[in-house]
Specification:
The structure is a single chain. The chain has 3 domains: about 1-30; about 45-130 and about 210-279, Rossmann fold (3-Layer(aba) Sandwich); about 135-205, P-loop containing nucleotide triphosphate hydrolases (Rossmann fold, 3-Layer(aba) Sandwich), CATH 3.40.50.300. Helix content is about 35%, strand content about 25%. It is built from 10 helices and 12 strands. Strands 8-9-10-5-11-12 form a 6-stranded mixed sheet, with helices on both faces. It has a 4-stranded antiparallel sheet with strand order 4-3-6-7, with no helix packed on it. A two-stranded antiparallel sheet has the order 1-2. It starts with a strand and ends with a helix. About 30% of the residues are buried. This is ABC transporter. Keywords: ATP-binding, Nucleotide-binding.
Protein backbone atom coordinates (compact mmCIF):
# COMPACT_ATOMS: atom_id res chain seq x y z
CA UNK A 1 0.00 0.00 0.00
CA UNK A 2 1.11 3.60 -0.68
CA UNK A 3 -0.14 6.52 1.43
CA UNK A 4 -0.41 9.91 -0.30
CA UNK A 5 0.21 13.19 1.54
CA UNK A 6 -3.52 13.97 1.63
CA UNK A 7 -4.23 10.81 3.56
CA UNK A 8 -5.45 8.83 0.55
CA UNK A 9 -4.15 5.26 0.45
CA UNK A 10 -3.66 3.51 -2.92
CA UNK A 11 -2.83 -0.11 -3.49
CA UNK A 12 0.48 -0.73 -5.29
CA UNK A 13 -1.41 -2.54 -8.12
CA UNK A 14 -3.16 0.76 -8.90
CA UNK A 15 -0.07 2.96 -8.63
CA UNK A 16 2.31 0.97 -10.88
CA UNK A 17 0.19 1.22 -14.09
CA UNK A 18 -0.11 4.98 -13.51
CA UNK A 19 3.67 5.27 -13.19
CA UNK A 20 4.07 3.37 -16.48
CA UNK A 21 1.66 5.79 -18.19
CA UNK A 22 3.65 8.76 -16.89
CA UNK A 23 6.85 7.15 -18.16
CA UNK A 24 5.34 6.72 -21.65
CA UNK A 25 4.00 10.28 -21.66
CA UNK A 26 7.45 11.56 -20.75
CA UNK A 27 9.01 9.69 -23.68
CA UNK A 28 6.47 11.18 -26.08
CA UNK A 29 7.05 14.68 -24.70
CA UNK A 30 10.80 14.35 -25.13
CA UNK A 31 10.32 13.09 -28.70
CA UNK A 32 8.18 16.12 -29.57
CA UNK A 33 10.40 18.72 -27.89
CA UNK A 34 14.13 18.63 -27.14
CA UNK A 35 14.52 14.92 -27.84
CA UNK A 36 14.08 15.34 -31.59
CA UNK A 37 16.83 17.97 -31.92
CA UNK A 38 19.25 15.97 -29.79
CA UNK A 39 18.49 12.79 -31.71
CA UNK A 40 18.98 14.45 -35.08
CA UNK A 41 22.36 15.76 -33.94
CA UNK A 42 23.35 12.37 -32.54
CA UNK A 43 22.51 10.43 -35.69
CA UNK A 44 23.44 13.15 -38.22
CA UNK A 45 19.85 13.33 -39.42
CA UNK A 46 20.21 15.48 -42.53
CA UNK A 47 18.37 13.49 -45.20
CA UNK A 48 14.80 14.11 -46.32
CA UNK A 49 12.40 11.18 -46.29
CA UNK A 50 11.86 9.71 -49.77
CA UNK A 51 9.60 6.77 -50.53
CA UNK A 52 9.48 6.24 -54.27
CA UNK A 53 10.22 2.52 -54.21
CA UNK A 54 10.49 0.57 -50.95
CA UNK A 55 11.26 0.51 -47.27
CA UNK A 56 13.61 -2.34 -46.39
CA UNK A 57 13.93 -3.87 -42.93
CA UNK A 58 17.02 -6.06 -42.67
CA UNK A 59 18.26 -8.20 -39.77
CA UNK A 60 16.21 -6.21 -37.26
CA UNK A 61 16.61 -6.92 -33.54
CA UNK A 62 14.59 -5.00 -30.96
CA UNK A 63 14.07 -5.33 -27.21
CA UNK A 64 11.62 -3.37 -25.11
CA UNK A 65 12.27 -3.16 -21.37
CA UNK A 66 14.56 -6.22 -21.58
CA UNK A 67 11.94 -8.27 -23.44
CA UNK A 68 12.93 -9.50 -26.91
CA UNK A 69 10.30 -8.35 -29.42
CA UNK A 70 12.02 -8.97 -32.78
CA UNK A 71 14.89 -11.27 -33.65
CA UNK A 72 16.68 -11.10 -37.02
CA UNK A 73 13.62 -9.82 -38.92
CA UNK A 74 13.81 -8.91 -42.62
CA UNK A 75 11.03 -7.79 -45.01
CA UNK A 76 10.12 -5.03 -47.48
CA UNK A 77 7.30 -2.49 -47.74
CA UNK A 78 6.58 -1.58 -51.37
CA UNK A 79 5.19 1.81 -52.31
CA UNK A 80 1.42 1.84 -52.86
CA UNK A 81 0.80 -1.65 -51.44
CA UNK A 82 -1.55 -2.43 -48.56
CA UNK A 83 -0.18 -4.46 -45.61
CA UNK A 84 -2.20 -6.08 -42.84
CA UNK A 85 -0.37 -6.94 -39.60
CA UNK A 86 -1.66 -10.07 -37.90
CA UNK A 87 -0.60 -11.79 -34.70
CA UNK A 88 -1.56 -12.44 -31.12
CA UNK A 89 -2.01 -9.60 -28.65
CA UNK A 90 1.42 -8.48 -27.43
CA UNK A 91 3.26 -10.08 -30.36
CA UNK A 92 4.74 -6.75 -31.48
CA UNK A 93 2.36 -5.36 -34.13
CA UNK A 94 2.07 -1.89 -32.57
CA UNK A 95 5.81 -1.95 -31.84
CA UNK A 96 6.48 -2.55 -35.54
CA UNK A 97 4.41 0.51 -36.45
CA UNK A 98 6.39 2.54 -33.92
CA UNK A 99 9.67 1.35 -35.44
CA UNK A 100 8.54 2.20 -38.98
CA UNK A 101 7.34 5.65 -37.83
CA UNK A 102 10.55 6.46 -35.88
CA UNK A 103 8.97 6.43 -32.43
CA UNK A 104 11.57 3.80 -31.48
CA UNK A 105 15.10 4.05 -32.82
CA UNK A 106 17.14 1.97 -30.37
CA UNK A 107 17.13 -1.13 -32.59
CA UNK A 108 19.88 -3.20 -34.15
CA UNK A 109 19.94 -3.92 -37.86
CA UNK A 110 18.78 -1.70 -40.70
CA UNK A 111 15.66 0.16 -41.75
CA UNK A 112 16.09 2.05 -45.02
CA UNK A 113 13.78 4.10 -47.23
CA UNK A 114 14.86 4.06 -50.88
CA UNK A 115 18.32 3.02 -49.67
CA UNK A 116 18.70 5.79 -47.06
CA UNK A 117 19.21 4.66 -43.48
CA UNK A 118 16.34 5.72 -41.19
CA UNK A 119 18.92 6.96 -38.69
CA UNK A 120 20.01 9.61 -41.22
CA UNK A 121 16.48 10.80 -42.09
CA UNK A 122 15.09 13.93 -40.46
CA UNK A 123 12.18 12.95 -38.25
CA UNK A 124 10.30 16.10 -39.22
CA UNK A 125 10.56 15.09 -42.89
CA UNK A 126 9.13 11.64 -42.16
CA UNK A 127 6.29 13.14 -40.10
CA UNK A 128 5.28 15.35 -43.03
CA UNK A 129 4.70 12.22 -45.11
CA UNK A 130 2.83 9.89 -42.75
CA UNK A 131 -0.57 9.83 -41.06
CA UNK A 132 -2.20 7.71 -38.36
CA UNK A 133 -5.68 6.32 -37.75
CA UNK A 134 -6.35 4.95 -34.29
CA UNK A 135 -9.37 3.39 -32.63
CA UNK A 136 -9.94 6.65 -30.74
CA UNK A 137 -9.81 9.74 -32.96
CA UNK A 138 -8.99 13.05 -31.30
CA UNK A 139 -11.05 15.96 -32.64
CA UNK A 140 -10.85 19.64 -31.78
CA UNK A 141 -13.76 21.80 -30.71
CA UNK A 142 -13.51 23.63 -34.01
CA UNK A 143 -14.80 23.46 -37.59
CA UNK A 144 -14.83 20.31 -39.71
CA UNK A 145 -12.42 22.16 -42.02
CA UNK A 146 -9.82 22.77 -39.29
CA UNK A 147 -10.21 19.23 -37.97
CA UNK A 148 -9.26 17.91 -41.40
CA UNK A 149 -6.63 20.53 -42.32
CA UNK A 150 -5.21 20.50 -38.77
CA UNK A 151 -4.67 24.25 -39.05
CA UNK A 152 -2.36 23.94 -42.05
CA UNK A 153 -2.79 26.19 -45.14
CA UNK A 154 -4.85 23.85 -47.33
CA UNK A 155 -7.42 25.42 -49.63
CA UNK A 156 -11.15 24.82 -49.26
CA UNK A 157 -11.09 22.97 -52.57
CA UNK A 158 -8.38 20.59 -51.34
CA UNK A 159 -10.18 19.87 -48.06
CA UNK A 160 -13.52 19.39 -49.83
CA UNK A 161 -11.98 16.94 -52.31
CA UNK A 162 -10.36 14.97 -49.46
CA UNK A 163 -13.69 14.95 -47.59
CA UNK A 164 -15.49 13.46 -50.59
CA UNK A 165 -12.83 10.78 -51.11
CA UNK A 166 -13.08 9.91 -47.38
CA UNK A 167 -16.85 9.46 -47.67
CA UNK A 168 -17.86 12.60 -45.76
CA UNK A 169 -20.10 14.05 -48.48
CA UNK A 170 -23.30 12.86 -46.77
CA UNK A 171 -22.23 14.45 -43.48
CA UNK A 172 -21.39 17.77 -45.14
CA UNK A 173 -24.70 17.81 -47.03
CA UNK A 174 -26.74 17.44 -43.86
CA UNK A 175 -24.75 20.09 -41.96
CA UNK A 176 -26.05 23.62 -42.55
CA UNK A 177 -22.55 25.14 -42.63
CA UNK A 178 -20.76 22.33 -44.46
CA UNK A 179 -17.02 22.43 -43.80
CA UNK A 180 -17.56 25.43 -41.52
CA UNK A 181 -19.79 23.42 -39.17
CA UNK A 182 -18.49 23.51 -35.60
CA UNK A 183 -17.81 20.24 -33.84
CA UNK A 184 -18.47 19.72 -30.16
CA UNK A 185 -15.67 18.79 -27.78
CA UNK A 186 -13.85 15.78 -29.27
CA UNK A 187 -16.56 15.44 -31.93
CA UNK A 188 -19.37 14.36 -29.62
CA UNK A 189 -21.91 15.36 -32.28
CA UNK A 190 -20.50 12.84 -34.78
CA UNK A 191 -20.92 9.10 -35.15
CA UNK A 192 -17.97 6.72 -34.80
CA UNK A 193 -17.85 6.23 -38.56
CA UNK A 194 -17.86 9.98 -39.23
CA UNK A 195 -15.01 10.49 -36.76
CA UNK A 196 -12.88 7.85 -38.49
CA UNK A 197 -13.63 9.34 -41.90
CA UNK A 198 -12.25 12.67 -40.69
CA UNK A 199 -9.04 10.80 -39.83
CA UNK A 200 -8.97 9.40 -43.36
CA UNK A 201 -9.62 12.85 -44.86
CA UNK A 202 -6.62 14.17 -42.87
CA UNK A 203 -4.38 11.57 -44.52
CA UNK A 204 -5.79 12.29 -48.00
CA UNK A 205 -5.46 16.09 -47.86
CA UNK A 206 -1.94 15.73 -46.50
CA UNK A 207 -1.13 13.40 -49.42
CA UNK A 208 0.52 11.05 -46.94
CA UNK A 209 2.84 8.50 -48.48
CA UNK A 210 2.18 6.06 -45.63
CA UNK A 211 -0.98 5.58 -43.59
CA UNK A 212 -0.61 3.66 -40.32
CA UNK A 213 -3.86 2.21 -38.97
CA UNK A 214 -4.12 0.67 -35.49
CA UNK A 215 -7.50 -1.02 -34.98
CA UNK A 216 -9.19 1.78 -36.91
CA UNK A 217 -12.57 0.00 -37.16
CA UNK A 218 -12.67 -2.01 -33.93
CA UNK A 219 -15.12 0.36 -32.22
CA UNK A 220 -17.52 0.45 -35.19
CA UNK A 221 -20.41 -1.86 -35.97
CA UNK A 222 -20.09 -4.33 -38.86
CA UNK A 223 -21.75 -2.08 -41.46
CA UNK A 224 -19.74 1.04 -40.63
CA UNK A 225 -16.56 -0.98 -40.21
CA UNK A 226 -16.88 -2.40 -43.72
CA UNK A 227 -17.36 1.07 -45.21
CA UNK A 228 -14.41 2.61 -43.38
CA UNK A 229 -12.10 -0.34 -44.14
CA UNK A 230 -13.05 -0.18 -47.82
CA UNK A 231 -12.30 3.56 -47.91
CA UNK A 232 -8.88 3.00 -46.31
CA UNK A 233 -8.01 0.37 -48.91
CA UNK A 234 -9.11 2.60 -51.80
CA UNK A 235 -6.80 5.55 -51.07
CA UNK A 236 -3.49 5.95 -52.91
CA UNK A 237 -1.21 5.81 -49.86
CA UNK A 238 0.78 2.80 -48.75
CA UNK A 239 -1.26 1.32 -45.89
CA UNK A 240 0.17 -0.56 -42.90
CA UNK A 241 -2.72 -1.65 -40.70
CA UNK A 242 -3.48 -3.67 -37.59
CA UNK A 243 -6.95 -5.19 -37.47
CA UNK A 244 -8.46 -8.20 -35.76
CA UNK A 245 -11.58 -7.93 -37.86
CA UNK A 246 -12.24 -9.79 -41.09
CA UNK A 247 -14.65 -8.22 -43.57
CA UNK A 248 -15.65 -10.69 -46.25
CA UNK A 249 -14.93 -9.35 -49.72
CA UNK A 250 -12.96 -6.38 -48.34
CA UNK A 251 -10.09 -7.65 -46.16
CA UNK A 252 -8.81 -9.72 -49.10
CA UNK A 253 -8.09 -6.42 -50.88
CA UNK A 254 -4.91 -6.13 -48.83
CA UNK A 255 -1.89 -7.05 -50.94
CA UNK A 256 0.07 -8.71 -48.15
CA UNK A 257 -0.26 -10.02 -44.62
CA UNK A 258 2.71 -9.66 -42.26
CA UNK A 259 2.29 -12.24 -39.51
CA UNK A 260 4.10 -11.28 -36.30
CA UNK A 261 4.84 -14.38 -34.25
CA UNK A 262 7.51 -15.40 -31.74
CA UNK A 263 9.80 -12.50 -32.63
CA UNK A 264 9.65 -13.16 -36.37
CA UNK A 265 7.67 -11.74 -39.29
CA UNK A 266 6.41 -13.90 -42.13
CA UNK A 267 4.97 -12.36 -45.27
CA UNK A 268 2.08 -13.87 -47.25
CA UNK A 269 -0.18 -12.69 -50.00
CA UNK A 270 -3.56 -11.84 -48.46
CA UNK A 271 -5.23 -14.49 -50.60
CA UNK A 272 -2.75 -17.16 -49.48
CA UNK A 273 -3.02 -16.21 -45.80
CA UNK A 274 -6.81 -16.23 -45.60
CA UNK A 275 -7.08 -19.44 -47.60
CA UNK A 276 -4.83 -21.11 -45.00
CA UNK A 277 -6.89 -19.58 -42.17
CA UNK A 278 -10.07 -21.02 -43.67
CA UNK A 279 -8.72 -24.59 -43.71
Amino acid sequence: MIQMSNGCIWHISVVLPLLNELKSASKIYNKITIGQQEKELKFNKEEDFSFQSEICVKNLYFNYEEKEIFKDVSFKIEKGKKYLLKGASGAGKSTLIKLLSMVYEDYEGEITADGVDYRNIKESSLNENISFIYQDVFLFEDTIFNNIALFKPFSEEEVLEASKKAGLEELLNKKENGLSEMLMENGKNLSGGERQRISIARAIVKKSKILFVDEGTSSLDEKLGRKVENTILDIDSTVIAISHRYYEGITVKYDYVLEVKNGTINQYSAEEYFEEEAI
